[in-house]
Amino acid sequence: MTAEHDTELFERACRVIPGGVSSPVRAWGPVGGTPRFLRSASGAWVTDESGRRLVDLIGSWGPAILGHTHPEVVAAVREAAGRALSFGAPTAAEVDLAELICARVAPVEQVRFVSTGTEATMTAIRLARAATGRDLLVKFAGCYHGHSDSLLVAAGSGLATAGRPSSAGVPDAIAALTLVVPYNDVDALEALFAERGDQIAAVITEPAPANMGVIVPDAGFNAAIRRITAAHGALMIADEVLTGFRCSFTGEWGREQQAGESWVPDLFTFGKVVGGGMPLAALGGPRDLMELLAPVGPVYQAGTLSGNPLATAAGIATLSRVDEALMTTIDRVADSVTDSAHRALDAAGVPHRVQRVGSLFSIFFGESAGERPVRDFTDAQAQDLAAHKAFFHAVDDAGVLLPPSAFEAWFVSAAHDDQALEVIDRAMRAGAEAAAR
Ligand code: PLP
User: Fold this and answer.
1) ipTM of the complex
2) What is the mean pLDDT of the chain?
3) Cα gap 252→385, rounded to integer Å
4) Is residue 115 within 6 Å of ligand 1 at its C-beta?
5) Which of 34, 132, 223, 384 is a good FRET partner for 2, with 20 to 30 A between their CA atoms?
6) Does residue 116 line the site of ligand 1, with CB under 6 A?
7) What's the gap in Å between 418 CA and the centre of ligand 1?
8) Closest-CA residue to 409 (of 37, 57, 27, 55)
9) Buried-state track 281-296, b at ≥16 Cβ within 10 A, e below 16
10) Band (27; pLDDT cuts 50, 70, 90)
């Protein structure tokens, strides 16, 4: 239960901010109740405005992979802030961060920094259209790539939660340029390309979708996207805003390479971890494509705060700590949380399924999820939202902050230590009992 204080704050917020939140997924609409207003965070813990401490499994929706307010990240940001908040001119730190990304993700030769994942995917699409001279874009139902017009069609995340096919305010003429295919459906993708392949500029995909809950890509699915796009002269955009530097120390592309899958997208987008909690995202790819961007090429893209010095400082400090050892740590944390949840739900007889890619996971509730894997948006929408709602509130009461939607991943960090994991274990049992009622 949120405290009275939070309720008052929420009432004030709703008077001056639509729905009281700066981003819809922060509202507790899908689960009911008043969202917690957070005041501070450290390691695995957050403290709300009424002073209650909870173990956090939102993790700022991905960036907080080292845990909140990691001392060395905070020190890097403080040091950068002491020099300048923003220049609007090139900096050495941008070069350092770009070099770090290029060194880590081999197909990326150049990167362009932006402030949000939305800008990264929007720019990647513009680049793909310019490179191919084609207009159509293909996305998968339930994947979320930010809130630009072309991508708010059959999107996941907040739109999935609201059960809307698309956003109001997107002109039909723009939505008509985005073609939607069910996730994990190679036949549907092939059929679409057979019909309209010569008009398609790109396929954009979350290589491991995490905005309709976590969906495991079928073995060879990403490689099939690569094969089909290449055969028709279209580009493949791997949107690793969420999976980048989380599914492995490079991302989902790197994780699949290690597993022996060989596919290389034309463009990558990154965000979240790459900015270490500050507003920073990027798109990257081979030099010949990236140099279509202004000022070298004809594709315009710009940003007053792009490559901001505080954000690049946080990005460098974070990314340089994201290595194989850190991945082992967060994989173990994910093992512990998923084991706790699975054991508790099994013991309480609640049908469910844990789906996981690397350390990224979510839990689907309901008979259908209990019986077979959730493979696409249609499956994801069949989950038992009432069970999730009961689970969410009991877990919250037991001191663990979960994403307030059944369509979001749970985010763990390297700072989730034994003490935090014990609290989670108890909370999972309380949640399971509530979901069973
Ligand atoms: N792409 C993916 C895969 C995402 O998960 C998100 C955000 O959750 C975005 C793009 C948009 O990023 P941002 O919220 O920074 O605009």
Assistant:
1) 0.99
2) 95
3) 28
4) no
5) 384
6) yes
7) 30
8) 57
9) bbbbbeeebbebbeee
10) very high
